[in-house]
Inverse folding.
């Protein structure tokens, strides 16, 4: 069991969206039973307890995200919290939220920083990529687990994608201008949101799909939408588009994954959760636990600069492993998501990596 120390005096209900992720199962306004906690988060008091005494804690968790403290100009509270942890030699865990994220100020190199966005080549020494958390698709759509009972008899790799993509020149130009504007605001210190790569994700997805669709060596199943979720606004439409998204993933071997508004792909983690193989167009993405996980065992990574070779790289992967090897990789992907990338799995492994790095092993 891991014992966490934090300071609830930092927390306000109206700012719950900026609460540190690991505290969410344990800091609730209403009564929350152990059964409810396990059903929603997969964690229990047997895994983690929040304690009031810093000297008895394994980890000190900065209660709110860096976004919250920077926006509210509350860095004095951050320094007080971290100095107390340093004094007792308890490691400090902190979070950055949002697609873009914010830059953590200098002077906190000994603090662990968990964030979804960011660039691999500019990561801080103790920065760890956070996966995107969502409901288990196998629980939501249990019928999709049966798709692998039917062998793919095609001798070509089968790649899917369902989502927003566009090669529209006007949209491309507008997205680039908007990206330049955000970058200008950041460098002028008028915004704390870190700028993202200028190439629009919608354009990058469409370009990658064109490479795959034009290759006779690859079989594709692409559902292209002009707008996010196809413009779905009501509950029924959102449910329909979500089901279509996962159905597309389930009938294919590989799923094309390209960053979104931030430099990470939610689809990448959804693909692993469904037991499929992500094909990631790598835009200098930082993946979770890169120091211990061999991501080549679970995914196909293709640099953005190598898009012209995307079909050949996928074909080589398919030819190397064959149908039997692909089935094994799919099972491995699902297990990885359960044990390392789900909400419970990620936080168990995160605590283990911080407290006992020598015992954290690549599966």
């Amino acid at each position: 069991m891991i014992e966490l120390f934090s300071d609830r005096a930092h927390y306000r209900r109206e700012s719950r969206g900026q609460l540190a992720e690991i505290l969410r199962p344990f800091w609730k306004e209403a009564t929350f039973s152990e059964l409810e906690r396990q059903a929603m988060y997969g964690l229990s008091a047997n895994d983690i307890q929040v304690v009031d005494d810093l000297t008895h804690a394994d980890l000190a968790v900065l209660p709110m995200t860096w976004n919250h403290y920077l926006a509210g100009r509350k860095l004095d509270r951050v320094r007080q919290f971290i100095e107390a942890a340093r004094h007792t030699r308890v490691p400090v865990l902190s979070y950055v939220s949002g697609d873009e994220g914010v830059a953590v100020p200098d002077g906190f190199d000994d603090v662990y920083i968990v964030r979804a966005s960011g660039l691999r080549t500019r990561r801080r020494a103790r920065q760890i990529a956070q996966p995107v958390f969502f409901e288990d698709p196998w629980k939501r759509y249990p019928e999709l687990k049966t798709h692998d009972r039917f062998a793919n008899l095609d001798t070509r790799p089968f790649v899917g994608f369902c989502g927003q993509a566009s090669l529209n020149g006007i949209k491309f130009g507008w997205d680039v201008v908007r990206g330049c504007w955000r970058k200008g605001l950041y460098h002028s210190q008028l915004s704390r949101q870190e700028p993202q790569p200028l190439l629009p994700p919608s354009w990058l997805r469409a370009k990658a799909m064109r490479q795959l669709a034009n290759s006779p060596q690859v079989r594709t199943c692409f559902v292209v939408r002009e707008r996010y979720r196809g413009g779905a606004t009501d509950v029924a439409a959102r449910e329909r588009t979500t089901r279509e998204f996962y159905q597309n993933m389930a009938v294919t071997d590989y799923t094309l994954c390209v960053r979104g508004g931030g430099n990470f792909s939610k689809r990448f983690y959804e693909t692993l959760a469904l037991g499929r193989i992500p094909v990631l167009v790598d835009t200098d993405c930082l993946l979770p636990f890169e120091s211990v996980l061999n991501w080549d065992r679970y995914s196909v990574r293709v640099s953005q600069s190598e898009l012209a070779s995307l079909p050949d790289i996928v074909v080589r992967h398919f030819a190397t492993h064959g149908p039997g090897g692909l089935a094994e990789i799919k099972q491995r992907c699902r297990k990885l998501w359960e044990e390392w990338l789900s909400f419970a799995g990620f936080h168990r492994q995160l605590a283990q990596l911080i407290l006992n790095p020598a015992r954290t092993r690549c599966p």
About this structure: Residues 2-130 form one domain. The radius of gyration is 21 Å.
